Amino acid sequence: MRIGFIGLGTMGGVAALNLIKGGHQLAVCDLDSERAKEHLALGATWADTPANAAKDADIVFTMVFGPKQIEQVVRGPYGLLSAMGPGQIWVDMTTNQPTLARALSRELAAKGVQPVDAPVTGAVDGARNGNMTQFAGGDEDTIERIRPVMELMGPKHCTGQSGSGSIARLATNTLWAIHATAMGEALKAVKSGVELPRAWDALKIGASESWCMHHDAPSVFAGHYDPSFTLDLCQKDLGLIVEACDDAGTPAPATRLVCAQFEKARQTYGGEKGELHVVKLEEDAAGVSLRMEGDWVPHWEK
Question: Whole-model pTM above 0.85?
Answer without folding.
Answer: yes
